[in-house]
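Now for today's protein.

===
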Amino acid sequence: MDEPEHKPAAKVLNGRINGRFAPGHSGCPGGSPEATRRAFNKRFLLDLAEDWQQHGREVFKRVRRESPAAYLKVCAMLVPREMKVEHSGGVKAMTDEQIEATIEAIQAMLAQRAAGAGAKVIEGTAETVALPAPDAVPDGPNKLMDAVDTAVGARERKPRKVPSSAGM
């Protein structure tokens, strides 16, 4: 007769059986860091509130008198560094009637602004002024091109053609 196979007893090593957590053993025995921090903060704030109820006003007054810098530092720490402003809805949350009323109000404001409510108008006319004709010969060598010639190597350039001012 075949005897049933007996499996050897599983070894529990560091709370694990074959690499898996054994029943009753947590993978994080100390708890999650977030939960630990929340629990600490809660207890700290409760203790602080209790201490404030007993001694708060007297300590507050004494610190303000004896150490105004520390007093102001605490006050500044209570002011948030950033203020998050969120808008909810906007145009998407508006009904068609609200959108139409808003458009009409904006058009009325624009019409009022265009009608001259506080606008300053400067009147004048433009005059045509003739520019002097360019010289037929340039005022000396082109310094930029000379610099390019020395950087790249000298090359011969053809003289520039200056358009005549007869056509104007």
